Amino acid sequence: MNNTAQLLQNNKKKILENWMQNQLADEALRDDLISNEELRRQSDELLNGLATATASGNVENTYAPEYETVTEILSDISITRARQGFTPRETGMYVLSLKQAINQVLEEKLSDQPEQLYKELSIINKLLDNLSMITFDTYIKGREEVILRQNDEINEISTPVIRVWEGILALPIIGTLDSARTQVVMENLLLEIVNTGSSIAILDISGVPAVDSLVAQHLIKTVSATRLMGAECIISGIRAEIAQTIVHLGIDLSNIKTKATLANALQLAFSMRGVEVKKTARYTGLNLNK
Amino acid sequence: MQIVREQDVVPFRNRVKEFATKIGMSLVNQTKLITAASELVRNMLKYANGGKILLEIISKNAQTGVRLTFIDEGPGITDIKQAMQDGFSTGKSLGLGLPGAKRLVNEFDLKSKPGEGTTVTVTHWKNGR
Amino acid sequence: MDRIPILKMGQFLLVTIQVDLYDRLALNLENDLINMVSKTGARGVLIDISAVSIVDSFMGRILGNIASMSRIMDAETVVVGMQPAVAITLVELGLTLQGVYTALDVEKGMELLHDKIGTIEHPEDEEEEAPHDDID
């Protein structure tokens, strides 16, 4: 067993005490987000892992299998912290304060052997710097997961399928259509077609800022998929500039029913279903007494 | 998994489905993956009289996915670029197998040497689109 | 050898595919179905694939074949009940089943077939049921 590991092992208790003190003394400690016992449990676990890992003799390469437990504990801590709303500074401080704690113990123990002290200090510094890098990595990963999830949620809510009439669905698309979005749109639309037994779907693209060949391809795909299910698809809300780009790009939409406005599309849908909308007796104003 | 007969295809599809369900893949993505697998198995049976398929669950960058590796010792493909084109087929089929399978999965890799066989690796992520 | 049962309902033939097909089974179905059409002089074929979770290019081709073959024998083919996931996959695959009529369920499929046979003399006013051309 090497020196570093021995030192860690023998002085585990002391280090943990120091570490806890450092953490508690830090103003950035978020006792609103984590309880002292929880913090102590986490810290103890991590320190144990570190002692076991260094016992292998490897004190440099934190990607080696001996460090898997340590890395795992650290990743766990950083990810939970990222979700709980800790700042990266607070998460980083957690590991860096351990460095301080170990250094304190080292200084005490090796005060009469400066050379040895220096060696151990630099080993510990290097090791813990590496570990704190890992916390940053995983912290950011944790945040990224949050963003991804939100992205999915936005995709989910931004594609409502509206039942406008018996057998007629409308789907206003707002924002850019990329392939991920198209898949969500397609899935929602097709599921809704099955659920409601609708035979006509109106895709309104007045909220789509631009239609390039890729977006057009996505639209064509959606229309084809609807047809395979046995329903018809009408695309509405084609603005003048969109019509222009479509023609300039040479995109062929001639096989797809297109209408300028949602109202026109609805009219077409009505006539396809044999529904007639008529004006009845004139509207005479609201009767407030009733 | 060994594939030598046509009847092996259905159990193989079920295995793929099992894997995809295990990691919680959505129905649409499952269907895409299984369809792609089905195309590739057919190619393997038709042109190479069967072969081996490796199924694995992999994870990378916080993503989980299913990877399928199709290994055969058939005649191989002489012109890969041509084989990847829509509508090209040396057999009498639609010629959608390889290019279609590529469109259905997230990652597609084809290696082939004429006379030695073909290896196709496809990966589909859990929430891959 | 396994076979898919074919039911005769008046002028129509009804096939419900309940299992995932492997290629031989699909080929048998194609054969049986075409033979049935010629034997019974059926005017329409209804294929229900609502229980099918996978349609790959081979299955797609079989469906297309059945449609074209029966059309030559003066029968229309309607494929009904395709799962959304299957439809999306087929489109990504690049297969739009040209020449095959589709409907949401058996009931709508029947309606469509009746319609087709009734209006066969005025093909110009069947806008809604126009054959689905390949638009890719």
Order of helices and strands of chain B: EHHEEHHEE
- CA(first)-CA(last) distance of chain B: 27 Å
Helix count of chain B?
A: 4
Number of helices of chain A: 10
> Mean of residue pLDDT of chain B?
81
Low-confidence stretches of chain A: none
Low-pLDDT sequence parts of chain B: none
Secondary structure: helix percent of chain A = 55-70%
Rg result of chain B = 14 Å
Characterise this structure.
The complex is a heterotrimer of chains A (290), B (129) and C (136). Chain A is α/β, with parallel strands linked by helices and 290 residues long. Chain A has two domains: 3-155, Globin-like; 162-273, STAS domain (Transcription Regulator spoIIAA). Helices cover 62% and strands 9% of the residues of chain A. Chain A has a five-stranded mixed beta sheet, with helices on both faces. In chain A, strand 2 (168-174), helix 7 (179-196) and strand 3 form a beta-alpha-beta unit. In chain A, helix 7 (179-196) packs parallel to helix 8. Chain A is elongated and about 100 Å long. Chain B has 129 residues and is an alpha+beta fold. Chain B is built from four helices and five strands; from the N terminus they run βααββααββ. Chain B has helices spanning 9-22, 27-48, 80-83, 97-104; strands at residues 2-3, 51-60, 63-72, 107-113, 117-125. In chain B, a hairpin with a 3-residue loop joins strand 4 and strand 5 (117-125). Chain B is globular, with a radius of gyration of 14 Å. Chain B starts with a strand and ends with a strand. Chain C has 136 residues and is α/β, with parallel strands linked by helices. Chain C has a single domain (6-125), classed as STAS domain (Transcription Regulator spoIIAA, 2-Layer Sandwich), CATH 3.30.750.24. Chain C contains four helices and five strands. In chain C, helix 1 packs parallel to helix 2 (57-72). The model of chain C is unreliable at 120-136 (pLDDT under 50). Chains in contact: A-B, A-C, B-C. Chain A: Pfam families: RsbRD_N, STAS. Chain A: InterPro entries: Bact_StressResp_Reg, RsbRD_N_dom, STAS_dom, STAS_dom_sf. Chain A: This is STAS domain-containing protein.
Q: Can I get a quick summary?
A:
The complex is a heterotrimer of chains A (290), B (129) and C (136). Chain A has 290 residues and is α/β, with parallel strands linked by helices.
